[in-house]
Amino acid sequence: MMHTWFPEHERSIRRSTADSYKTIIINHIAADPIGQIELAQITKQDLQSLFARLERKPGKARGTKLTKKRLRNIYSPLSIAFDSAVEDTLISHNPISTMKKPRLETPSLDIWTDEQVRRFLALVETESPRMKPLYLLAAFTGMRRGEYAGLRWTNVDFDAGTLSVVETRLYSGGEVYVGEPKAKASRQTIALASDVIAALAQAKAVQEVDASAHGNDWINSGYVFTKPTGEPLHPDYITKRFRRDVTRSGIPNGIPLLKLHGLRHIFATAALGASANPKDVSTYLGHGHVNTTLTFYSQDRVGAHAEVARRVQDRFHTIESGPDVTIAVTNPEIIQSAQKTET
């Protein structure tokens, strides 16, 4: 069933999504007993048994199970495939439609404090200067890896202080390719802080030195973040290099290990913690809906909650220390009742 549906559906979805679906079909559906059942014979009970087996299936790390997110990702292509089968009149109804989608657990966010961010950027200034502009851009804009890996100089406007997210460089299926931004909302032009503009100018200056040093051998790729030869950085290299820089420079200086995507979380948490409008933060991150931003990042709002509590307390203190307020009671029944109470 999945083998006939997937080739047709593959052409209408992002390549990274298609690669993910392909992995799911091979590892979790075709390899399962349900893969041997005829399409028209698959029932809700068969699907419930499938997910019961998947919940017991080992995860990537030793001693773990498949995550709720992975189970949810397996549910999605199944649902789409059954819907397609209904449209093609191969089956009368979608057997998975009445099953609850696996609940997505909000993962705990590992982020750095403001001081740790400042300290890390100061350390890489001397120990990994070529990478500092990239790290600063990621932490100060919340851009995704594919977005800054695919950033070209033609999409940076120094005069306006903006950059445009129009494409991504991704690694999937064993090769690097240029693709569309993750979501429609991600294709946008964002304003840059002065530190980010300065960092990009630094990256451009480094490229000019590289071009001069390599002469005719230098590759004018047009990308912002490149090797000394001018070739764009491999997306996986960026991830590995960040981990290496954190391990070598950060950990010895009291900065905990962090995933590269954690820089995006740092930006979102800092923006919300600074009382930025959640809708503005959401659009800056390229989220399709503000609920995504608030749901994902609301868990790390202790500082924001403390600020709310302080403001309410200050308001009450203001009331307490303000002018006396006398309430005039003119209703005779209330006055008479109060006099009886006093006696």
Q: What features would you describe in this structure?
A:
Helices cover 53% and strands 6% of the residues. The protein has two domains: 2-87; 114-300, Intergrase catalytic core (hpI Integrase, Chain A, Orthogonal Bundle), CATH 1.10.443.10. The chain is mostly helical and 343 residues long. It has 14 helices and five strands. The strands form two sheets. A three-stranded antiparallel sheet has the order 1-2-5, with no helix packed on it. A two-stranded antiparallel ribbon has the order 3-4. Helix 5 (114-127) packs across helix 9 and helix 11 (278-285) crosses helix 12 (290-297). Strand 3 (168-172) and strand 4 form a beta hairpin. Residues 320-331 have low confidence and may be disordered.
Topology:
Blueprint: H1 2-10, H2 15-29, H3 44-56, H4 68-87, H5 114-127, H6 132-141, H7 145-149, E1 156-157, E2 162-165, E3 168-172, E4 175-179, E5 188-191, H8 194-214, H9 235-250, H10 262-273, H11 278-285, H12 290-297, H13 302-321, H14 332-342
Antiparallel strand pairs: 1-2, 2-5, 3-4
Helix pairs in contact: 1-2, 5-6, 5-9, 6-8, 6-10, 10-11, 11-12
